[in-house]
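Good morning,

Both structures are done.
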Amino acid sequence: MTINRARVLSCLAGASVAFFAMGAAAADLAAPQEAPTAYEALSTKSPWQLRVRALGVITEDKGSVNGQPGVGLEYSDTVVPELDITYFFTENFAAELILGTTYAKINTTGALGDLDVGKTWLLPPSLMLQYHFTDFGAFKPYVGAGVNYSFFYNQSDKGDFSNVDVEDDFGAVLQVGFDYMFDEHWGLNFDVKKIFLETEWTATHDALGPLSGKAKIDPWLIGAGVTYRF
């Protein structure tokens, strides 16, 4: 009887150990996983974003010709494609490189009449530092400020003008816009930028001789397009 009682107690002890071991394992499996921290959530999201926009370029139509009062310049407005590449340092702070090219026809105004000076192509890459607001759900507004450097190329003359040359120059840029995201990757974008651009220009006219002055273009860039966040 003593031996049987010892065997029963031994079996009960082993079963108890096994039961508590299984319970502990089950508790570990059932334990809720900790929510990822903000840093962990951010680190899983790509910092790269692309935008493709249709861009309207609306100029200020200001300038001077040989410093003569009542004589100015005007430039044609255009619609062109634009590509933007954005890198997010955090969900709020980002840098954006803006790429696109456009052209402008240049005319005189005022006392000289409407003279067709020529045409120039313009490549105005801009580098922006942006702040993105993240408290409005799918609606994600942002503001930005940066610097622009405008390259003028393929400059051509018209009529009695020759040697038209518009100089490359720096300008400041301000920006406001928003993305409306349909999901984690795709969204629509609306964007407005103002470039403060004033440069020098020269040309020669058959009757008037050498001409020079300032071309104050100061364009508004109004764009709408598609956003893709990697």
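Second structure follows.
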Amino acid sequence: MKKQFSDFYLECGTDEAGRGCLAGPVTAAAVILPMDFKSDLLNDSKLLSKNKRDFLKTIIEAEAVSFGVSNVFETEIDSINILNASIKAMQVSISKMATTPEFIIVDGNKFKPYKDIPHKTIVKGDRKYLNIAAASVLAKTYRDAYMEKIHDEYPMYNWKQNKGYPTKEHRRAIAKFGATKYHRQTFRLLPEQYKLDL
């Protein structure tokens, strides 16, 4: 995995977590890593165990030149749509960094210009560049912690386990108990074909 894409010293990687969830926010992070940063463990957060993500979160936060994390919540996701919400979360996380980046690389293929900072979108960037992988780890760990917290309010959906993703168990709970204030109302919480399985 490469450290970064450009030759700029202050290049930030940004990524989001929770885009495909039925409940909870979309959470994004932006990270600028120092030029001499090395890690054999760091990878796309989806490929790492919870213990490895938690371990890496501590290292990233201690060693990053700068980082920012941001949530966009359900009501806003419903009003501006999930793609715009994901891009907004990434841009807000960049704005929260104490250091302004000179270049931005984004996981995926969609982004909107942020200030006048040049950017590049990279499909599967979280498996190619350490700074995007670092952002993916922060986005995932912060979002998971939030979902575990709201799990206590509505334990029947088991967000502690599924983190709001559309598992069969989560859909069954929605069918039985209905949607909560944390559910995204514009998402198809119960597809028609699923009703036949109940």
